[in-house]
Amino acid sequence: MTSEVAHRADFSAIRYAQVWEDAEVLVAGLAIRPGDRCLSIASAGDNAIAMLVSDPSEVLAVDLSPAQLACVALRVAAYRALAHGELLELTGSRASDRRRELYARCATHGGLDPDARMFWDARLELVDEGIGRVGKFERYFTTFRRWVLPLIHGRATVRSLLDPRDPDARRQFYDQTWDGWRWRGLFRVFFSRFVMGRLGRDPAFFRYVDGDVGGRILARAEHALVELAPADNPYLHWILTNEHGRALPLALRAEHFDVIRSRIDRLRWRHVAIEDALVDHPPFDRFNLSDIFEYMSPEASEGLLRALVRHASPEARLLYWNMLVPRSRPASMRATLVPCLDEAERLFRADKAFFYSRLVIEQVT
User: DSSP string covering 301-365, please?
Assistant: First the structure.
């Protein structure tokens, strides 16, 4: 079986060099239990790796893109071969002038698989940059940071945004210093459907999107800058500074490094559509579905949900995000899949990756 989006989008290059979905929200919402079998969209691998913190017996990461799976494979090799600080250097979270040397250790001592090694050996200039910087989506943010943000605010103001503040002070800073016609106008243009489709995401991913894309993301950005703490937001740090600064995503935090390393061999990855990963596999207990339904028609979304439920254990959980397209369990599936509305809303309010419009958590009956 082939996923609907496979016929329309280009999967030949790195689209996401890191995962832009909040791993803290993912791990909390899935409530993974020791011994659970987990199925995850691979993307760059960060969140599939983060799931190991909860002690599952298996995480199977799948993706239609060989380039994305090469990102997963290199991260796995890095956990095997590098110390924590060296991992941060390789990803670009911290400055480094020796990334090619670190990559060589991953290749020789980290068990990097032959396909991934061939991919990265042909792209050593990407390794030099930091492997978390080199996707199309990350280049999009680089363009924003270099060419758009300076038209809105100077460096001192940008740095000040990331300083710790209490909620009242964050609101005051946003209203009196950050917000303005340049911020609102240029943000809405840069994060419009037209610009994002050409510079950040594949245009095919917007097939089912209607309405004011830039305006919706602007409202979520205000939530992240005021209601949440910019100082603690690794995704915002990266967008504004090209590194994670004081804040790190869950999988890259020092307190999780040894646990993840001890469990890294529980993570496997396959170059298949998610539907095909279900075949001849024991039922899964937890599903990290990223924003996969964003790219599907309502009919295709329902078909995939039904396939997942058929291959799920009792009380299995599904978690996914809506960015611009509303997708969730259809009424026709209410007997087999129950939405966890209150929990999803609570976690969504804390979601540091502010691009999304909704978090969906559903449980198999």
Answer: HHHHHHHHHHTEEEEEEEEEEESSS-----GGGTTTEEE-HHHHHHHHHT-S-TT-SEEEEEEE-
